[in-house]
Amino acid sequence: MHLYGTQTVNDKGHLVVGGCDAVELAREFGTPLYVMDEAFIRQNARAYVQAFRERWDRFAVAYAAKAFFCTAMAALAHQEGLHLDVASGGEIATALAAGVPAERLFFHGNNKSPDELALAVASGVGRIVVDNLYELSLLRAEAARQGARPRIYLRLTPGVSAHTHHYITTGQLDSKFGIPIETGDALAAVREALRTPEVELVGLHAHIGSQIFDLNSFRVAAARMMAFCAAVRRETGWTCSELDLGGGLGVRYTAEDDPRPIEELVAVLTEAVAEQAAALDLPLPRLVVEPGRSIVGEAGVTLYTVGAIKEIPGVRTYLAVDGGMNDNPRPALYQARYEVVVANRMRAERVRRVTVAGRACESGDILVHDADVAADVEPGDVLAVLVTGAYNYSMASTYNRFPRPAVVFVQDGRAEVVVRRETWDDVRAHDVLPPRLRPAGAAEEAAATGAGPDAVPVERG
């Protein structure tokens, strides 16, 4: 069993995260519960910043908000000197609400809406990463309307296919993201951006995928981007002063995973860019990276309460929990694998093989296949799924109208709610029941009881 960050086991045999007993966290805040190890998040953020400081003069580490985001996370990242990679108007608004200066935001997305581009220009977002020429035309019009001149990157696809799940590879030719280099479209896009006076082209961007262990993929991508920078300089005279190489460093979900250290990734990127700059007679650019999973992934634990245990002799044992694909859709989306422990039986031998099932009305709602847990696990125990800090809370849904879980930050024995648990009222808060669909007498009853115009009457038996 592998423990992450500040995780330990106390004298009660309970899992401890950030100095907090996981069983007590479940009792105090309820389950399902996302627990984020704040000290570990900060440690990973600092590792990126320090590694670049030792190797590169001009750089930016932009935390990829899509991995896990709320106002507390935005504020934490900003405290640690990180920029933010945001991909929607909602993420921009969250960052600004947390006090992050707009100029420290990199705005991504393959189909940004006119309203989102208007927000980005009006708030002064630092870099808008333009994904296609249609977006460039929208941005041009919006910049002219506001009398602004936003700084932009062009997102390119360098033709590098990272060795990861095909749903999370993005650098190959066949991708919904970016402008391909090998077809000549990227060079044409650079020319178009340079003759668009309403924007200032300052850099280029590429992101080859996510959950990557083979660092050579990053090396190849960096080399191809630098080669393109040289070609652009020859053809147009424009010099790329900022190069954004995205994120994608993998983390350890199971014993079979072999992630590389943050420092090793930074060494590979800086060496590749420096070598190519020397060989191609290019100035060293400002280097930007956008890590997400490698900052928060291993720092997260999701706690569940064990419910029904269903044994099918000769087939399998199902262990049901009070969450599932609503709070962690990754296993259903792309067969993601996790390790689990019984948080209140950490010293027990893990000899009982179970399939951890969620409670959504889907046969595919399976969190973990063939997990080994304590032999005496029983209903009411606390099950902990490890390494759930990335793409769990951020992809959660209210399918079956299950409310989304709370999120707590833990550090030095202190637990703080940073996202409150949703309620049934929250789930239906945006519902509107037209008067024509209300049961007879409902309007009169609502008026008599003082309920609002959208109140739904309670059926009484």
Automatic annotation (TrEMBL):
<dbReference type="InterPro" id="IPR029066">
    <property type="entry name" value="PLP-binding_barrel"/>
</dbReference>
<dbReference type="InterPro" id="IPR002986">
    <property type="entry name" value="DAP_deCOOHase_LysA"/>
</dbReference>
<protein>
    <recommendedName>
        <fullName>Diaminopimelate decarboxylase</fullName>
        <ecNumber>4.1.1.20</ecNumber>
    </recommendedName>
</protein>
<dbReference type="InterPro" id="IPR022657">
    <property type="entry name" value="De-COase2_CS"/>
</dbReference>
<comment type="subunit">
    <text>Homodimer.</text>
</comment>
<feature type="modified residue" description="N6-(pyridoxal phosphate)lysine">
    <location>
        <position position="66"/>
    </location>
</feature>
<feature type="binding site">
    <location>
        <position position="248"/>
    </location>
    <ligand>
        <name>pyridoxal 5'-phosphate</name>
    </ligand>
</feature>
<dbReference type="InterPro" id="IPR022643">
    <property type="entry name" value="De-COase2_C"/>
</dbReference>
<feature type="binding site">
    <location>
        <position position="293"/>
    </location>
    <ligand>
        <name>substrate</name>
    </ligand>
</feature>
<keyword id="KW-0210">Decarboxylase</keyword>
<feature type="binding site">
    <location>
        <position position="391"/>
    </location>
    <ligand>
        <name>substrate</name>
    </ligand>
</feature>
<comment type="pathway">
    <text>Amino-acid biosynthesis; L-lysine biosynthesis via DAP pathway; L-lysine from DL-2,6-diaminopimelate: step 1/1.</text>
</comment>
<dbReference type="GO" id="GO:0030170">
    <property type="term" value="F:pyridoxal phosphate binding"/>
</dbReference>
<keyword id="KW-0663">Pyridoxal phosphate</keyword>
<dbReference type="InterPro" id="IPR022644">
    <property type="entry name" value="De-COase2_N"/>
</dbReference>
<dbReference type="GO" id="GO:0008836">
    <property type="term" value="F:diaminopimelate decarboxylase activity"/>
</dbReference>
<feature type="binding site">
    <location>
        <position position="334"/>
    </location>
    <ligand>
        <name>substrate</name>
    </ligand>
</feature>
<dbReference type="Pfam" id="PF00278">
    <property type="entry name" value="Orn_DAP_Arg_deC"/>
</dbReference>
<dbReference type="InterPro" id="IPR009006">
    <property type="entry name" value="Ala_racemase/Decarboxylase_C"/>
</dbReference>
<feature type="binding site">
    <location>
        <position position="362"/>
    </location>
    <ligand>
        <name>substrate</name>
    </ligand>
</feature>
<feature type="domain" description="Orn/DAP/Arg decarboxylase 2 N-terminal">
    <location>
        <begin position="48"/>
        <end position="296"/>
    </location>
</feature>
<comment type="function">
    <text>Specifically catalyzes the decarboxylation of meso-diaminopimelate (meso-DAP) to L-lysine.</text>
</comment>
<dbReference type="Pfam" id="PF02784">
    <property type="entry name" value="Orn_Arg_deC_N"/>
</dbReference>
<comment type="similarity">
    <text>Belongs to the Orn/Lys/Arg decarboxylase class-II family. LysA subfamily.</text>
</comment>
<dbReference type="GO" id="GO:0009089">
    <property type="term" value="P:lysine biosynthetic process via diaminopimelate"/>
</dbReference>
<feature type="compositionally biased region" description="Low complexity">
    <location>
        <begin position="440"/>
        <end position="452"/>
    </location>
</feature>
<dbReference type="InterPro" id="IPR022653">
    <property type="entry name" value="De-COase2_pyr-phos_BS"/>
</dbReference>
<feature type="domain" description="Orn/DAP/Arg decarboxylase 2 C-terminal">
    <location>
        <begin position="34"/>
        <end position="389"/>
    </location>
</feature>
<feature type="binding site">
    <location>
        <position position="330"/>
    </location>
    <ligand>
        <name>substrate</name>
    </ligand>
</feature>
<keyword id="KW-0457">Lysine biosynthesis</keyword>
<dbReference type="InterPro" id="IPR000183">
    <property type="entry name" value="Orn/DAP/Arg_de-COase"/>
</dbReference>
<feature type="binding site">
    <location>
        <position position="391"/>
    </location>
    <ligand>
        <name>pyridoxal 5'-phosphate</name>
    </ligand>
</feature>
<feature type="binding site">
    <location>
        <begin position="290"/>
        <end position="293"/>
    </location>
    <ligand>
        <name>pyridoxal 5'-phosphate</name>
    </ligand>
</feature>
<keyword id="KW-0028">Amino-acid biosynthesis</keyword>
<feature type="region of interest" description="Disordered">
    <location>
        <begin position="436"/>
        <end position="461"/>
    </location>
</feature>
<keyword id="KW-0456">Lyase</keyword>
<feature type="active site" description="Proton donor">
    <location>
        <position position="361"/>
    </location>
</feature>
